[in-house]
Design brief:
Elements lengths: L1 H9 L1 H21 L1 H10 L2 H28 L6 H12 L9 H11 L5 H30 L1 H6 L1 H4 L2 H7 L2 H14 L11 H30 L4 H19 L9 H10 L5 H63 L1
Helix pairs in contact: 3-15, 4-5, 4-7, 4-12, 4-15, 5-6, 5-15, 6-7, 7-12, 7-13, 12-13, 12-15, 13-14, 14-15
Length: 335
């Protein structure tokens, strides 16, 4: 039964069908609440949306740096510029239905910079586990303070937190990664994750989640003028919504599921229609952030390509000059 269900979910037509169903329900909810939604959108100012975008981009940058720390801990340190290009270009793949596109893109882009595929694979898997674990932990703490009833309502998402924490202990994590690589017919890792590396990645992830939550709080403050516990609910609610969306790999970038959970969280503070408006703007802002960072990644790629071409041209000229000097020396010797 489980195998049949796995095959069913892996079917691309089933994925598209589920996405259409989710979008249909979201569209109906938006239509039913449109008067309140339009009122909430009308209260937003350009400067709050701009600050929200900056917070989202800063949060994404922290997540990228966390992955870079994990990869360095496994033995492949990369310059920030290179890590940014790999990560931000790969993140565009999460908007395609399925769980593998962003994952595969990050592995292959890393291979272009001489990062072994098995090491890239392990770094992305570990980073994903840390991201989800940190997000659920923040949601548990912040929502327990700001909205205890909501934390109890989403116990099914928070219930996996102890399992993630246990699996992220370096002795356990190292064995799990080696076993997974062997299952995929790959060589085990040369270096296993360390406490220090995981702690550094976790700290950056927490900073990223806080900034992404501030993104929502800025919009909430602008629309409803709420402060104080609103920040706790915004950070906890967004962390929960995004983490749950990451676990629902069938839907591209957690679309629909993330909004449903975020709306349920914000509806504890503001009218339902206003919560829908904030969730919609948050989706637009995070998408704009991904596109902006993806554009930066493309620009960094062109710059790196020009540098590589210039280096190759200089090397060719130097080699040609060396051959010319060798030829001259040979003729003089013959004379």
């Amino acid at each position: 039964m489980l195998i049949r269900l796995t095959r069913l979910v892996a079917n691309p037509w089933v994925r598209v069908g589920l996405l259409l169903i989710v979008l249909a329900f979201c569209g109906y909810g938006l239509y039913a609440e449109w008067p309140q939604v339009s009122s909430g959108l009308g209260r937003l100012h350009w400067y709050s949306v701009s600050l929200s975008l900056l917070a989202a981009m800063a949060g994404s940058a922290c997540m990228m740096l966390a992955w870079r720390v994990v990869l360095a801990d496994l033995g492949s340190p990369l310059p920030v510029r290179v890590a940014a290009r790999i990560n931000f270009l790969a993140q565009l793949g999460k908007y395609v239905p399925g769980a593998v596109w962003a994952f595969a893109a990050q592995v292959e882009l890393g291979h272009d910079y001489n990062v072994p595929r098995r090491r890239s694979f392990a770094s992305v898997a570990v980073s994903l586990a840390i991201t989800v674990g940190a997000g659920l932990a923040l949601a548990l703490v912040f929502l327990q303070i700001g909205s205890p009833g909501l934390a109890r309502r989403y116990w099914w998402a928070l219930a996996v937190l102890p399992l993630i924490a246990a699996c992220l202990c370096p002795p356990v994590l190292g064995r799990l990664l080696d076993g997974l690589l062997i299952l995929l017919r790959r060589q085990p890792l040369e270096l296993r994750p360390s406490w220090r590396g995981l702690a550094g990645a976790l700290a950056l992830n927490v900073a990223g989640w806080l900034l992404l939550g501030v993104q929502v709080w800025l919009l909430l403050t602008d629309v409803a003028g709420m402060r104080g516990t609103a920040l706790l609910v915004a950070v906890g609610g967004y962390s929960l919504a995004f983490s749950a969306g990451l676990m629902l790999v069938v839907l591209p970038s957690g679309i629909g599921a993330r909004e449903i959970i975020l709306i349920a969280t914000l509806a504890q503070l503001v009218p339902y229609g206003v919560a829908v408006a904030i969730a919609l703007v948050t989706r637009v802002v995070t998408t704009a952030s991904d596109l902006a960072w993806g554009t930066v990644g493309l620009a960094l790629g062109r710059r790196a390509s020009r540098a590589a071409q210039a280096a190759a041209s200089s090397a060719a000229m130097a080699k040609a000059g060396q051959r010319g000097l060798t030829g001259v020396a040979a003729r003089r010797s013959a004379d």
